[in-house]
Amino acid sequence: MDLGLSLDTSLLLVALVPFLAAFVAPFVHRFIRPVSGWILALVPGGIFLYLLGFVEPIVSGGTISAGLDWIPSYDIRLSFFVDGLSLLFALTISGIGALVVLYSGAYLKGHPHQGRFFGFILAFMGAMLGLVLSDSLLALFTFWELTSITSFLLIGFDHGRQAARRGAIQALVITNIGGMFLLAGGILIHQIAGSWDLSAVRGMGEVLRGSGLYGAVLVCILGGAFTKSAQFPLHFWLPNAMEAPTPVSAFLHSATMVQAGVYLLARMSPSLGGTEAWTLTLTIIGGVTLLWGALGSLRQTDLKQILAQSTIASLGLLVLLIGLGTEASIAAMAVYFLAHALYKAGLFMVAGAVDHETGTRDITTLRGLADKMPVTFIGAGLAALSMIGLPLTIGYFAKEEMYLGLIGGQWETALALIVLVLGNALLAGVALLVLIRPFLGDLAPTPKPPHEAPIAMLAGPILLGAGGIVAGLLPDWVGHDVLVPAASAVLGETVKSHLSLAIDLTSPLLWLSALTWALGILFYRQADTMRTLLRRFEQGLGWTADTVFDAVMFGLIRFAGAVTRFFHHGQLEFYLTVVFAGLALAVFGPMFAFGGFDWLVPAADLGDWSKRLVLPGLQPYEWGIILLAVLGLVAVLIAGTRLVAILSLGAQGTALAMIFLLFGAPDLAFTQFMVEILSVVILALVMTRLRLDERDHRPFEDWARDGTLAIVCGAGVSLLLMLVLTGTLDTRLSDFFTQTSVPIAHGHNIVNVILVDYRGFDTLGEISVVMGAGIAILALLRRRKAPLPPRSADPTEPNHRVTEAEA
Amino acid sequence: MNTIIFRTIAPLIVATMLVFSVYVCLRGHNEPGGGFIGGLIGAAAIGVFGMASGVATVRQALRVDPMAIAGFGVFLAGFTGVLSLFTASPFMTSIWLYLPIGETTIPLSTPLFFDIGVYCVVFGTISAIALALESDREEEL
């Protein structure tokens, strides 16, 4: 496995290679179009195989960490950490990722943007792998936000449809709010624990729980996890995210994206867990989400929506298990995560295959597809068996393990047990619904004649379903290689596995399972009645979290509009008045406050102006230039038309440029010349474009107001400059530049050397601003023209009018 | 601006100004000049050209959208800064290369290319604005 790279580099590559692959994916796809799915699936597949090499050291109790310096001055490292928990997640992500890439090669065959899609999904996978492998809280946050952004791109992939855009924006808004919570939580943890590293924070649970900020940290971390993992009442973005192409749903809603919140909770449970607040919040929210999602699932008729709602239920189940925090429930969490990822990804792929080959996903119209799509049916069957939790599947272990920790406890645990049994039974009913309704019975007509899906679309469901069964046949392996390392990583102590194939008829666990199945069958048989009841309930409720979201977003836009209209009302004159009044204040305020006037004109000299005002000894041509500047100024003031005023202003500026030239600032003079010329040209153009009057008509009040402001500002700036000149200039900076310009920057023109070398970073910022301003100006000019096209779009229309008028 | 004299002389002026703008830009490190002022002169030339020959002609002669030139300028300036990372020095540390050609030595440096980036930004942005203002209503901006 070792490619001769150091561990640091190779672990870093696991998170970065998908991004590189994402970058080249569109080009690869262009050249090998028919097989691009097979080739690109090698990337996640390779990562999966590479990560398998870590199983051995991790199972024997070790951890692996690696890292690179990122921002050493702030002690921030791009550090990675592999333990049982992160390895379980990383293997699931890369394994399912490979199958999803393969699947989407066939599912989106012939789609014009398939290459782009591969890029998005690989980048998403890289973000997800980085998230679960990160040791640094900041790196975790960065990858967390990257998953939000890439999932936004994936959900909105069909950007032509309004529903897809809405789903994408909703997911982005909700998960980004969570991301902000996570960032705040991470910073708080760093403040308390003094380290960014999760591996270090894990050992400081006492410190964190004892801190006065514990409540704030808890709110932030839970806020992050609950938004990402779609917990009630923030669950509504998940069903809307079903607007994504099915391979995206299969990936995002089985092992990735929504599981990031579960991962965060599991990761944080040694440092934050165990308190009453933690246990209560997680169990209550998780339990409510479980039941809400499972009932919501029965309400739907669209296969994908059914699965989406059942994902919400499963997420609630996982959160509930983490909240309980006992050895058995954490072990159940690890096994259930794997079981759910395997069967949910498989079922989504089945739903996609059914949709792809029949043209509909509605379980009320689909019937008897088993004959036409036998392999798909087998895939669906394997997954559904695991979802129901029948013996010999991994789902069975997960369920047994859940119940194990809750038998014979207080009334709280009994309540949790009831919720779990009900939730599992509802999910079993959903599994039966998904398996039996579309596939068994007599064949019903569908929009497209049904036929078997291509092999690339069957590989996923079959392999994942078989994986669920194989794992169910190998309890020792699941216990030793999955349950123990992951649960030990969460609990911080070695856990013992007690999974076994043996069925003990005296065990209450078996009877609880039997009860679950019986209830599941009951729910399946009553599915239609329940759907009607649930729909009636929802209609009675009148509003959902979804409508609340819309109302909030709409209100936000309205509020932003109101604020904008208040500050940005479009009266240019008023803006300028405010700006220049502000300038006058900024200049005169400090001058008054710090006694600048006394400095400039000492009281003793007040009576004797001639002492202060001395004519400088200038050459005649220098007087000439100053005269030119004054003349230009006077001409601006008395100019009859705007054009003359613009030209006079240019002449005045040119005279100023000549003054710069005479007093040793050729660069400044040069630039001033060009600026003056261009200003005259552009002002003249703007004037013709705006169709201003030739003359400037202003009422006397405006004229007086503008004149006063101008005089005040001008006088203020002049006084300020005179004040500056009375002091001694600090020449340390200019001395430094004069001395070092040639030896270290190899340039004689100090102004230019400062611009491109000493302060190059500033210049880079400035030119970016120049370009940004240019784009804004072009946009404004275009906008002015925008109302025109509707008239000119139909060129015949004006002609008609002309002819009519002539007639 | 449709006088014969202007239209005849304009191309000459424009050509001179463009060459001069490049000259001013390149000599900027040691003599008065630099990318900013060079870009302004170049943009003024484009403005003059647009007045004399019409915006469509200028756009055709430029071949590239002026805003694309500006974007390239920002990229070039940023890129020269990144180069120093490969020499294990901080961002934007200048790198100098003395290239002997015949008897003379041509000093090449990242600040030079940075300045060319500045030239492109100023030239592109101001030209784009000038052309947009000059273009007539029916013309595409």
TrEMBL record, chain A:
It comes from the Bacteria. Residues 71-118 form the NADH-Ubiquinone oxidoreductase (complex I) chain 5 N-terminal domain. One of its GO terms (cellular component) is plasma membrane. The keyword Transmembrane helix applies. InterPro entries: CPA3_Na-H_Antiporter_A, MrpA_C/MbhD, MrpA_C/MbhE, ND/Mrp_TM, Nuo/plastoQ_OxRdtase_6_NuoJ, Proton_antipo_N. Residues 704-785 form the MrpA C-terminal/MbhE domain. One of its GO terms (biological process) is monoatomic ion transport. The chain crosses the membrane at residues 12-32, 39-60, 80-103, 115-133, 169-193, 213-234, 277-294, 306-324, 330-354, 375-394, 414-435, 455-474, 509-527, 574-601, 621-639, 644-663, 669-688, 709-729, 763-781. Keywords: Antiport, Cell membrane, Ion transport, Membrane, Transmembrane, Transmembrane helix, Transport. It holds the Pfam family MbhE. Its main location: membrane. Residues 797-807 have a biased composition (Basic and acidic residues). Residues 788-807 are annotated as: Disordered. Residues 134-417 form the NADH:quinone oxidoreductase/Mrp antiporter transmembrane domain. The keyword Chaperone does not apply. GO terms for molecular function: antiporter activity. It is a multi-pass membrane protein. It is found in: Cell membrane; Membrane. Residues 627-691 form the MrpA C-terminal/MbhD domain. This is Monovalent cation/H+ antiporter subunit A. It comes from Devosia oryzisoli.
UniProtKB/TrEMBL annotation, chain B:
GO terms for cellular component: plasma membrane. Keywords: Cell membrane, Membrane, Transmembrane, Transmembrane helix. It comes from the Bacteria. It is a multi-pass membrane protein. The keyword Cell membrane applies. Residues 5-127 form the Na+/H+ antiporter MnhB subunit-related protein domain. InterPro entries: CPA3_antiporter_subunitB, MnhB. The chain crosses the membrane at residues 12-29, 35-56, 68-92, 112-133. It is found in: Cell membrane. This is Na(+)/H(+) antiporter subunit B.
